[in-house]
Amino acid sequence: MSKSYTIEDVLAMPIAEAIDPDIVKDIVNRPPFVHIPGSFNARDVGADEHAEVRSGYIFRSGTFEDADDATLASLQKLNITTIYDLRTFRETQDHSDPQFSGIDIRWCPSTVDNDLEKNFQAKVAQKLNIHEEYAKLMRSHAPKFEAVFRHILEQPDKPFLFHCFAGKDRTGILAALITLLGQGEDRNEALSAAQRDYDLTRVGIEPVRELLLAKILSYGNVDPKDAGGFADLRAFLVELSREYGGVQAYLSNHLGFTFEEIQQIRQNLRPRPSRQ
């Protein structure tokens, strides 16, 4: 492409500003992004070489609101067998998941009602202690997160995808937990990979940027320049350690996994030796 850019500058752009379409196209046509018609912000969680999570197994995306036969064909090409919907009950009622032949779509309730979920989204939109809100989300969404980690434990050979609405907050934190567990939350490479994956949502949401911006601004008291801000995952990691004792302790004490199961989950996440 003719336009030059740095990925750091692009990811730092506020949601109120549109990213040049040519730049968006250039980025989303390369890993970790994958093309799934009818959705957006779709990525392979293991496509980052520093993530220590195997590629082709775990995928993340935004919601499926314009799904059609091409969507199913793409999901089948990626060998996705299960989709985990992280949205609220109200969100699923307003925009239900499409039915895909041969793909199991699972929704688990959270422990917060829709009003509390809206309050969470409003605080994140206003950049009010995002890392603290994310730590709270880990408690309220424990049933949803437990289902995903149990899939990793029990179905290591069945690729799956998880999504919320934009694929930013709920999806982003779950992806970060997976990445941190896969490599070790105390390693800089894991944190950098998790942060990069999280930040790439700024490009991934561009197809629905105006819709998302309008939703964010509807909460009020939001400066458009700061709307829908992104968190520093280092601050989140500090809060995670303070509140839960770290990722492994979270899986043990709040999701109910044994030490042996957590070690097996970690093993199932790691890249497999290539066959000669």
Description of the molecule:
The chain has helices at 7-11, 21-28, 69-77, 89-94, 114-125, 130-140, 142-154, 170-183, 188-199, 201-204, 209-217, 233-244, 247-253, 259-269; strands spanning 43-44, 58-61, 82-85, 104-107, 160-163. The chain has a 5-stranded mixed β-sheet, with helices on one face. By secondary structure, the chain is α/β, with parallel strands linked by helices. Helix 4 links the parallel strand 3 (82-85) and strand 4 (104-107). Helix 7 crosses helix 14 and helix 8 (170-183) packs antiparallel against helix 9 (188-199). It has one domain: Protein tyrosine phosphatase superfamily (Protein-Tyrosine Phosphatase, Chain A, Alpha-Beta Complex). The mean pLDDT is 88. Helix content is 48%, strand content 7%. The protein is built from 14 helices and 5 strands.
Strand order, main sheet: write it out: 1-2-5-3-4
Query: So, the CATH homologous superfamily?
Result: Protein tyrosine phosphatase superfamily
Q: Look at the helices and sheets and give the structural class.
A: alpha/beta
Taken as a percent bin, the fraction of beta residues is: 5-15%
Order of helices and strands: HHEEHEHEHHHEHHHHHHH
Helix percentage range? 40-55%
**CATH T-level topology:** Protein-Tyrosine Phosphatase, Chain A
Q: Please give the number of β-strands.
A: 5
Backbone shape: globular
CATH architectural type: Alpha-Beta Complex
Number of helical stretches of at least 4 residues: 14
Mean of all residue-level pLDDT scores:
88
CATH class: Alpha Beta
Largest sheet: 5 strands, mixed
* Spatial gap, N to C terminus: 37 Å
- Low-confidence spans: pLDDT under 50, at least 5 residues? none
Work out the radius of gyration: 18 Å
As for the number of domains, it is 1
GO molecular function: phosphoprotein phosphatase activity
Protein name: Tyrosine specific protein phosphatases domain-containing protein
InterPro entries: Prot-tyrosine_phosphatase-like, Tyr/Ser_Pase_IphP-type, Tyr_Pase_AS, Tyr_Pase_dom
Domain Tyrosine specific protein phosphatases: 132-196
